[in-house]
Amino acid sequence: AKANIRAFEASGAEIYVNNAGGCGAMLREYDRLFHDEPKWRERATRFVEKTRDISEVLARSGLPACRKEWEGGIVYQDSCHLRNVQKIAEEPRQLLRSIPGAVYVEMAGADRCCGSGGIYNLLHFEESMKILDDKMKEVLKTGAKTIVTVNPGCHLQMRLGVKRMEATDRIRVRHLVEVLSEVYLE
Length: 186
Fold this sequence. Notes:
Strand content: 5-15%
Shape: globular
Number of helices: 10
Strand order of the largest sheet: 4-3-5-6
Distance between the termini: 36 Å
Radius of gyration: 18 Å
Helix content: 40-55%
């Protein structure tokens, strides 16, 4: 944490942008690491105040016109760390709803864990697969062709869910930034 704080301070940046819910959650808790070190606690507090998830930055920036329209339905799976630690839930949805041609569908239970939970899926594999299978039933109910996530663990877990359903030919999993890249940059 101290090395990161030093490096980011040296960058001179006004904000520090991250694109992974779990990583960003840890960065946003740096100030809690230095209870007995007032100098570092102060530096960490400034660091936390400058840390942003990419969805926050993009939702507030006013994106340019899309270069192409999206085809099909999109469902969003919250990252538990983004939603519960960083307190960010609406910004990714706002960005997805703003994409021309996209049919954004709110999935029942999108705010509940997908079963990845950091290393929960490694420590409690069977239980995590039950959670994942239940999650995938909800995905199917939406009719969406794309599942969007913002955390690597969720991304891998949802890809496994698609594979377990033998739906890799009809449902894809993408990070929010990948989806935005497809319509704004390509």
